[in-house]
Amino acid sequence: MPDTASFLRDIASSNADTRFAAWRSAHEVDPEALPELGKLAASDNPGVAKAAREAITTMTHGVGKDASNPKRAGVIKGLIDLAGPAYALPVRVHALRSLSLIAGEDNVPAIAKWLHDADLREEAAYCLERIPGKAPNQAFVSAYRSAKDDFKPRILAALGHRRAEEGVPICLEAMRSLNKDLAIAGARAFGRIGRKPAAGVRFIEPAGLTDWEKVEHMDSQLRYADAQVKAGNLADAMKIYKSALARPEPHWQCAGVIGIAGMGTPEAAAAVFPLLKSPNRQVRITARQAWDRMAKNTGA
To answer: What is the pTM of this model?
Structure first.
């Protein structure tokens, strides 16, 4: 194992080859080197700063390959410390990016506190989003209440990406907001999560939405409908798919047809059948393909 003091001297060397060799060997170095690496990563010398950042990355990757690596806990603790206010912002950002690769549920509280830091909240969200388990979901839900309005859509997006059922109540709340950005973010996350709430759901009204917001709104509903098919809630799914069939845009009609065809019920066949004679060629083709699949699946 390289001596920590000599390793740090090499990272700060004026010789590029020496710096390179040092950072390449960083996985062998004791995590106690991390505080000084954090300082060197903010150096005015670009070569030294790069070498220190690369060394931090190499140390992270070195323990990331094996969860039982005896240095792993030390590296994680060191990175959490580097995310603190004692270090320059670029170093703090780099530390959170590194933590996203190796942090676990036990580290969530230490990372979640940065969700309320204007400079670090995006990096903290990115980091938490990549940590498996329920703890990050709870951290996002807890942070949502006191988060600034401009960051709430980001928290909702994280819950949606993680398919976090814990996020359903705040998604429904956001969908009722007069803030369109928040309402759309709530609908988008709700559609991705796909969990049917006990009290039912009412999607936002499309009136007043921009064209792009209308796309997001419809896409969210269709995602939710797809999830309901998988969960066996066919009636709820059919209602949404039929609303897509009623839209004038051919691509939404096609999306509705594809969704309905996956249900494979007599009601689904009855909904698709009229579109075999649609005036729109793409809709006719999609309906025919869906019809043939349903016939094949039923052995008709």
So the answer is: 0.89
